[in-house]
Amino acid sequence: MKKFFVLLSLITCINGFSQPGIGMFGKNPIINLENFDKQRVHWGYYLGFNSYDFKFDYIEPDKDIEVQSTTGFNVGLIGNLRIMEYLDLRFEPGLYYAQRNLVYPNIEDPFDRLREVKSTYINFPLLLKFSSKRIGNIRPYIVGGISESMNLGSNYKAKDDNYNERFRMQKMTTNYEVGFGIDLYFEYFKFSPSIRGIFGLNDELIRDNTPDSPWTGNVDSMKTRGVFINFAFH
């Protein structure tokens, strides 16, 4: 919820600047970077925050595994290819730090009940950006596409499992991503705050060596989902 309040506050500020007579977002603003979006290719970078989660499906109905999300950090690059006036193709490779704490309600021992899942993802999204008509120095857009993530903290090669305090995941994950944002044109650069959801398509869990493991035995699938708030500069 904190992330949504941050974005809401940002939109409120933008709306305030958009009132008649206020600065470059007023009723008759000075148009900044008028030909910026006509470039065939341009580059940028982004910084942001993430909140990762897991979606669990079970073999037999049981108590849900509780996922406690924490706030992580994103940083990456942007390559933008203009296809037509309102459509762009984007490649946004980035590094994402995240942690999820899993609480297993059926395990009594407080130490075994908790598993900290720390992940460092290298994410490779290929996205389509659909922009609206530019109004002064503001241009809203929506974005969507697919991504491939490499989890550097997956422990996928480890022979030990949860019985040895080792939580294991698949190294590669395929996802789809959807989101929206606003391009704001300043005198020397373009600033683009956005919010995006990511949804894993494949099961990421590596089962324990013991089939009836209390950590993995009843899990049919475990898929990533999450929310990103990014601040891009072009």
Automatic annotation (TrEMBL):
<dbReference type="InterPro" id="IPR025665">
    <property type="entry name" value="Beta-barrel_OMP_2"/>
</dbReference>
<feature type="domain" description="Outer membrane protein beta-barrel">
    <location>
        <begin position="39"/>
        <end position="204"/>
    </location>
</feature>
<dbReference type="Pfam" id="PF13568">
    <property type="entry name" value="OMP_b-brl_2"/>
</dbReference>
<protein>
    <submittedName>
        <fullName>PorT protein</fullName>
    </submittedName>
</protein>
